[in-house]
Every structure is written in structure tokens, then in C-alpha cells.
Amino acid sequence: MAHSRRTVVARDLFVGTSSVVTSGLIAYSLDGPTAWSLGAVAVAFGVVVFAVVDRSTAGPYGLTAGLVGSILALTAVLWWLVPGTPLAVFPPLLFGLGVGTAANRLVFGVVYPLPEARLRRENLA
Q: CB of 124 within 8 A of CB of 109?
């Protein structure tokens, strides 16, 4: 089933927004402090990762493995940098990935056209 360009943009913006909201809910439910300053690192990471995913010609298994592996690596780094409970890593991580997803889609989807590799993957090219 082919999607429209508008559907791709709306879906990615929804995923980014829901990640940001979820990060706030997790942070609110934690007892200890949350290291929001590491969210800036996660935002930069999210923008780069999702820009690479948009332009990759790898198949779905390669993209999934690369995305999961890179997110796990960032989680490990943040876990090492954040003192206290390991759960304190998830709010800045989700916040960064959500903002990265939404920012990438706003730039490449709203301001500029969707990348060709993403169009082919969504059967829009």
C-alpha cells in the first residue's frame, strides 16, 4: 500500500511528538533528578541518525539493526554519564530522539522535499 508524502510527514511528526511527551511523563514519574542537559547530546544524535536513515539504501533488516544498535550505544553512553538510577537515562534519550525525528522531518519533508531513498522505501518515487 503506497502512502502519500503528507502521510509520511504526519507519521514522523507524530512519532517525534509522542516521544517527547513520553519522556516528560517518565521524568515526572521518576523519584530522582533527570539529567536534561544530556538531552542536547541526544537531540544531535537523533538528528544525525534519522537523517542517515532517510538517505540509506539498506534494506529493512539493515536499517533496523543499525538503528537499534546505535540507540543502544547511545543508551549505554548516557547510562555511564548519568549518576543514579538507570531509568534516569530514558527521559533525555526519548526527548532527543523525538526532537531529532521531528526536526529532521520538518526540514526534510516540510521545508525541503523528502529524500529520494525515503520516497523509494515508501513506494512514492
A: no
For residue 7, give the amino acid letter: T
Helix 90-107 vs helix 60-81: crossing angle, to nearest 10: 130
pLDDT at 1: 39
Q: What is the pLDDT of residues 7-23, one digit of tens each?
A: 889 999 999 999 999 99
Going 115 to 7 to 51 to 55, the CA torsion angle's sign is negative
Entry pTM: 0.80
With contact defined as beta carbons under 8 Å apart, do 15 and 25 qualify? no
SS (H, E, C) the chain: CCCCHHHHHHHHHHHHHHHHHHHHHHHHHCCCCCCHHHHHHHHHHHHHHHHHHHHCCCCHHHHHHHHHHHHHHHHHHHHHHCCCCHHHHHHHHHHHHHHHHHHHHHHECCCECCCHHHHHHCCCC
